[in-house]
Amino acid sequence: MAGRALVLGLAGLLAACSAPHPEAPAQPLAIYAMDCGHITVSDADSFADDGSFAGQTRELVDPCYLIRHPSGDLIWDTGLPETLNAAADGYTAGEYHLTVPVTLTSQLAQLGLAPGDIEYLSISHSHFDHLGNAALFAGSTWIVDADERAYMFRPEARAGEDFASYAALENARYQLIEGDDDYDVFGDGAVTIIQAPGHTPGHTILRVNLPQAGPVLLTGDMWHMAESRERRTVPRFNTDRAQTLASMDKVEALAAASRARVIRQHVPEDFAALPSFPEPLN
Length: 282
Description:
The protein is α/β, with parallel strands linked by helices and about 280 residues long. It has helices at about 1-20, 105-110, 145-150, 155-160, 230, 240-260, 270, and strands at about 30-40, 60-70, 70-75, 90-95, 95-100, 120, 140-145, 175, 185, 190-195, 205-210, 215-220, 260-265. The chain is globular and about 55 Å long.
């Protein structure tokens, strides 16, 4: 009997070892809002071509967003370079004073992630405060508007001081968004990149249809200031004024049709109203 019990025990052990282990539960759809820098503007005149912000000082936030989906993770915008975290007093460039109180990589680490774990990267547009950490995600699949990619690698951009922060993307895997269609990131309508040009040639926004909070629009640089949306101000540095106004109309129509929550990405009140990291909005 003892021998038979031993045989049965070994058989059970082998069966347990060979049985497939249950997979980890799928990550539910959620948005994580991460602090990727702060910008003090000493003279906000360039943020409205009608002169209405001339001489005004403004405080802007510069977030990054991690979109977690059952099929993978997407980083939306990458903020200011996290190397600025080492500068205790920040960095001044013209009318901008930049500070990075916490690094993007340390925030990802709180979720048990590293940049190499992120499947997808997309940026609303290619200004320095949105792609400062883009090189960290050169191993991800970069989803980018075709016009924006061409704009980023034109000769003038290559000669600029910001080019080094994203040069590695030139040889990264990428998925072009061509024409005027939306791009469904995961193929289920949950996360959609929507073209909204004018700030730059290929500026985009992101719609996330959350299960509890409902639709959310992350609007890039559609509006920089709290009052920019209502007043429809167009920054002097936008590439096309008419396109900008048309994109504003498009985004407003999308928001109204779906009753979406609109996040003006640089507006401190909008960022503060989101769950504090590492809590998600879902």
